[in-house]
Specification:
CATH class of one domain: Mainly Alpha
Shape: globular
Largest sheet: 2 strands, antiparallel
Order of helices and strands: HHHEEH
CATH topology of one domain: Arc Repressor Mutant, subunit A
Number of helices: 4
Helix content: 25-40%
Number of strands: 2
Radius of gyration: 13 Å
Strand order of the largest sheet: 1-2
CATH superfamily of one domain: Winged helix-like DNA-binding domain superfamily/Winged helix DNA-binding domain
């Protein structure tokens, strides 16, 4: 399985103390409004149902210390919009250009 495409510029603050796997999951979560299981498993070195569940639990615990909640709903996991906005993904299409059309050019069409 290939790694989930993430923006290299998405770097979690060092004081969060995330493991390499947690950093990759955080990057994958930031990149999508709702990140499904397959998307997140692609971010792991050794994907699998239990591995993802364990890493998500660890990530939730680390981020909770900083007031960030990793939510879950049908379809996958998500980060609050203000967190995604902080890292340049406010438009909901995952390309970070703010226009919502998904092509990354910022023109909105």
């Amino acid at each position: 399985m290939t790694a989930a495409p993430v923006r290299p510029a998405v770097v979690a603050p060092l004081d969060w103390g995330l493991t390499p796997q947690q950093r990759r999951l955080f990057q994958a979560l930031v990149a999508r409004p709702v990140a499904g299981r397959a998307w997140l498993e692609a971010a792991l070195d050794k994907p699998g149902r239990r591995a993802l569940d364990n890493h998500i639990a660890g990530l939730r615990s680390r981020l909770a210390a900083f007031g960030i909640r990793v939510g879950h709903r049908r379809g996958g996991w998500f980060l609050p919009a203000p967190v995604r906005t902080r890292f340049g993904f406010a438009d909901g299409d995952g390309d970070g250009d703010g226009d919502g059309d998904g092509d990354g050019d910022g023109d909105g069409r």
